[in-house]
Specification:
341 residues; alpha/beta; Rossmann fold; Glycerate kinase, domain 2; 2 domains; 19% strand; globular; kinase; Glycerate_kinase
Length: 341
């Protein structure tokens, strides 16, 4: 069914999912849902989101016609060559980097995951390439990294290139770090170590190393929100490169003009691979649903797995949650929602 002229003149539905991690990029999810809405005669506005982790580069480049994608060879978490991307946006004034492109957990097999062995050096190489493009600002998305090295590998690369702070002064472009977790420095190993392959003994050793490292840093990251993000990369950039640490989801949503697009829409659709209690803790779907509730805009969700309990669904005022595990099901979910929203 094709949308009629009258239906297309109605306010669109704002389709604003995060990625379904390890399965579909946010833009793929958004396109499939939009196709479903169009099948049901509803106009839809695709607005893929991210929280600083996977999909941040795509979310920030989606609506920028001046985007230039660059690919370079860097070291992966084990130092092996890997091709990683960064982007120039805003007519070359801003660079966007996802550290997971270089040191992502997805680049390792289960057997290779060992945060006591891997290094963040590849992320440093990727950031350095962006810094050398003559931009005014570098946006660094954290999330999905394999490392808990306190950013030591990254800092070694940047220090050798003269890109760390000297005498407390910033050199080069502004660095803004988009964080997907609020964890402070000293909690990095405890919070992120197990998912990256660390057993309890390794977590204790990694924590000890980071506590010791903090004593020699330009600014002590202990107790500072976001400094533990990406196993300490956030804190390393904040302390040694003068970076600003920000909540990734809020930053991306503001950058893509989410609020204005939401107010111009009849409803908002959020989503991610798994929705659970962590969705409410600053992740993009929870932030988007909260903004919709505050603005009085109806909101629904589509996800791979719904692990929200009824109370959590009510907290962010989701009218309906539909599970969809592949692109065909996502399109069908959009078609179903076209009749409900």
């Amino acid at each position: 069914m094709s949308p009629t002229g009258n239906e297309l003149r109605q306010p669109p539905v704002l389709v604003a999912p995060d990625s379904f991690k390890g399965t579909f990029h946010a833009i793929e999810v958004a396109k499939a849902l939009c196709a479903g809405f169009q099948d049901g005669g509803r106009a839809a506005d695709a607005c893929p989101l991210a929280d600083g982790g996977e999909g941040t580069l795509e979310a920030l480049t989606a609506g920028d016609r001046s985007t230039e994608l660059h690919s370079i060879e860097v070291g992966d978490p084990l130092g092996r060559p890997v091709t990683a991307r960064y982007a120039l946006i805003e007519n070359g004034k801003t660079a966007v980097v996802e550290t997971a492109e270089a040191v992502g957990l997805v680049l390792l097999t289960e057997a290779e995951r060992n945060p006591e062995v891997v290094s963040s050096a590849g992320a440093g190489e990727l950031i350095l390439a962006a810094l050398e493009q003559g931009v005014d600002e570098v946006l660094v998305g954290l999330g999905g990294s394999a490392t808990v090295d306190g950013g030591r590998g990254l800092l070694a690369v940047l220090k050798e290139a003269g890109r760390t702070l000297s005498a407390g002064r910033r050199t080069g472009p502004k660095i803004t770090v988009l964080c997907d977790a609020r964890s402070p420095w000293e909690e990095a190993a405890k919070v992120f170590g197990p998912q990256k392959g660390a057993d309890p003994a390794a977590v204790a050793r990694l924590t000890k190393e980071m506590v010791q490292q903090a004593k020699s840093m330009r600014k002590d990251p202990t107790g500072i929100n976001y400094t533990g993000a990406a196993g300490g990369i956030g804190g390393a950039l904040w302390s040694e490169c003068g970076a600003e640490l920000v909540a990734g989801a809020q930053f991306v949503m503001d950058r893509v003009n989410f609020d204005a697009r939401m107010r111009a829409s009849r409803a908002v659709i959020v989503g991610e691979g798994r929705m659970d209690s962590s969705t409410l803790l600053g992740k993009a779907p929870g932030e988007a649903a909260t903004r919709a509730r505050q603005a009085g805009v109806p909101c629904a969700a589509v996800c791979g797995v719904n692990a929200l309990d009824p109370v959590e669904e009510r907290i962010i005022d989701l009218q309906v949650v539909i599970e969809a595990g592949d692109l065909k099901q996502l399109r069908a979910a959009g078609r179903t929602l076209a009749d409900l929203i």
